Amino acid sequence: MQQSLQPLVPAPLAYKPERTRSNLFTALLRAAREFGANKPILVDGDERILTYKDIIRACFGLGSALKKGTKRGESVGVMLPTGAGAVVAFFAVTAYGRVPAMLNFTAGSKNLKAAMRAAKVKRLITAHKFVELGGLESLIAGLSKSVKIVYLEDVREKLSIGDKVAAVAGPALPTFVGAALNHKQPGVILFTSGTEGDPKGVVLSHENVMANVEQVRAHIGLSPDTDIVFNPLPTFHCFGLTVGALLPIIAGVKVIFHPSPLQPKEIVRRIRESGATILLATDTFISQYARTGADGDLDSVRLAVCGAERVKDETRDYVRRKFNIEILEGYGATEASPVVAANQWEHNKPGTVGRLMASMESRLVPVEGMPEGGRLHIRGPNIMMGYLRPSNPGVIEKLPDGWHDTGDIVDIDEEGFVRILGRVKRFAKIGGEMVSLAVVENCAAAVWPDHMHAAVTLPDPKKGEQVVLLSEAPEAARTPILSWAQSHGVPEISVPRRVFKVAQIPVLGTGKVDYSAVQTEAERLMND
Asked: Which pTM does this prediction carry?
């Protein structure tokens, strides 16, 4: 058990807006100069170590080959697990003026086709090994009817003399490619989950992503000398891409990649062996890692940065008690590149997601039936260029005056700490009162802290809506939740009308609950 974590904490840095006015590939080249081209910066899932020089050479060589059949400004799909391949493909596409579109391989054929249609993707980069290990053969076969599939292994085997020359000469003469990219141009396209209709493309400029890299670096404080980031989160998710891959590489902090967050035993072992100091996770995943790990396994971790879902009090207490790890909870949206707010080591207020990033503005729009807080609108250098929709391919739908409506209801206290009250769509209106589905889930989590729970709404003939809870707890029932609510002063309206025990709560590849699947299952159970 660690005696004291305080001496390991680097002082927060000043936010440097001038560093945001470069494109992402130039930022990679700058990092190589700043921290040394031979610095080991990336460790892959198979323990292969890459230096800046390795990454840059691979980017020039592969990028020269991958650009064939595409033109500058065109979107190129990237569908790879978290690791060296995804990073190299990202920067290789960027180096030659193409825009990587990061595709969620867990989204299913329908959503992937809609995403590629929105971004006008004609080529998709993946790997034979990944397709084989992931059992994605039928998915790829279906996608190959609408896009050209390019396998990294095939490209490497067929590199031309020109591609090999580019690999060697490119790092010495970078001005003819990446340096010419304007930081205001699209730098990457990510996609919403598609649980509320067709997925939308989120277009982030180089400046948007670079701004968030610098905002997070200034906010949290990272040390290139002592910190090691462990990232098991997918790069098709903005948290996994910006914070888990681009930030450490640009900031000179060694990053350990793991191809899936769903392997707690392997992850705990690799954290121990690598001496990682910063763990990126979600509440669901860090709870699994903490319960899997034995004493000493996570002692090197000084803090865990958690996003994508609310951190439960039970998770925070358990992780702190067992491993003396402080969880910094944050809040983000793909549209914000993604980090909007985060707690800090020296300013950590549990129950909140911390303060807004530097140079961000916010406004709260009142919501009917909600006596406190409001619907959060945000603006700043990290806010997206706009959406791409399958119904209007390739056309960026810009934001009015740069303001993004998050769809989240929040409260901001006098110190600037943001408290998430819930998503507008995650409230039920019962007898004229607004009930947060998150509160319903929290009540269940208080009764059965070791199990997952998910609440959704279904129509109710008398009260408009009713709340139905799905739970993995073997003894799941309504009565224990009602008893807990009554003894803790929680109104009965926050107790679900029906409770169903299920074997497993559906989860998206990002670690979030798949509420669309939960809704479908709840409807089925109610009708059985």
From this structure: 0.84
- Distance between CA atoms of 219 and 278, rounded to whole angstroms? 14
The yes-or-no verdict on residue 422 having pLDDT over 80 is no
pLDDT tens-place string over residues 476-513: 899 989 888 888 888 888 888 889 999 899 887 666 78
| Distances in whole angstroms, Cα of residue 15 to Cα of each of 70, 251, 381 | 36, 13, 12
| pLDDT value for 33 | 93
Average pLDDT on 66-90 reads 91
Q: Which two tokens stand for residue 210?
A: 């670079």
Residue 439's domain comprises: 431-527
Position 450, amino acid: D
Distance CA 176, CA 85 (A): 24
**Does residue 421 form part of some domain?**
no
Domain match, 394 and 522 both: no
Q: Judging by beta carbons within 10 Å of its beta carbon (0-12, 13-18, 19+), is residue 392 exposed, middle or buried?
A: exposed
**Residues 142, 107 share a domain:** yes
- Residues 399, 475 within the same domain: no
Written as one string, the DSSP assignment of 147-164 is: SEEEEHHHHHHT--HHHH
Whether residue 442 sits in one domain with residue 397? no
